[in-house]
Amino acid sequence: MDARATIQDYYDSLRHGAPLDTFFVDDRAADDPIVKFGISERLVGSDSVQAGLRDQTASTSDWTVESRELRVTERDSVAWFSDAVTLAWEEDGTHHEFDTRWSGALERRSGDWSFVGLHVSVATEF
Predict the structure, then answer these.
(1) Dihedral through CA 116, CA 114, CA 42, CA 49, nearest 10?
(2) Looking at the predicted structure, is the pLDDT value of residue 1 above 90?
(3) pTM (2 decimals)?
(4) Cα–Cα distance for residue pair 54/70, rounded to 1 Å
(5) pLDDT for 20-73, tens place per residue?
C-alpha cells in the first residue's frame, strides 16, 4: 500500500468507527515524540495519541469524511500530504460539522506507512 492509500484507509476507518491508533508510529523508543493536532486538542507521544484516538472512537459516531483536495508526495521512506476535508460527527447527541485543513507526515517502516505527525485545523477566513 502506498502513502495515499494509507491516508484514504485512515479516512475510511474514521467513517466506520474502526480503531485509528494503529495508523500512528509507536515512538516509545524514540527521542522525538509524534504529535497529533486535532480541532481542539494537542496530543504528544504514542501513548497520548493512542489514548486520545481510542477515546474519540468510543465517544463519537456517524462520521462524514469528505476529502476534497488530497495531495500526497512520497519519497523513499517518507511522505507528506495536505487536504481539505469536510468533517461531521455525532457526540453526546450533538451534531458537529467543520470544514477542516489537514497536513501531516508519514514514514514507511517494514513496508507499511504510518503517521509521524498529523495536524487538523478548522478552516476559517478573516
Answers:
(1) -120
(2) no
(3) 0.92
(4) 25
(5) 999 999 876 667 789 999 999 999 999 999 999 999 999 999 999 999 999 999
* Strand blocks (E) in 6-110: 35-37, 42-44, 61-67, 71-75, 78-91, 94-109
Dist. CA 67–CA 45, nearest whole Å: 26
Report the pLDDT value the prediction gives residue 29, as an integer from 0 to 100: 63
**All structural domains of the chain with their residue ranges:** 3-26+47-122
Nearest-angstrom CA–CA distance, 49 and 69: 25
Q: What is the CATH number of domain 3-26+47-122?
A: 3.10.450.50
CB 58 within 8 A of CB 91: no
**Which one-letter amino acid corresponds to residue 10?**
Y
Cβ-proximal residues to 80 (8 Å cutoff; 6+ apart), any chain: 72, 73, 103, 104, 105, 106
What is the 8-class DSSP label of residue 24?
A: B
pLDDT at 87: 95
CA separation for the pair 65, 124 (Å, rounded): 18
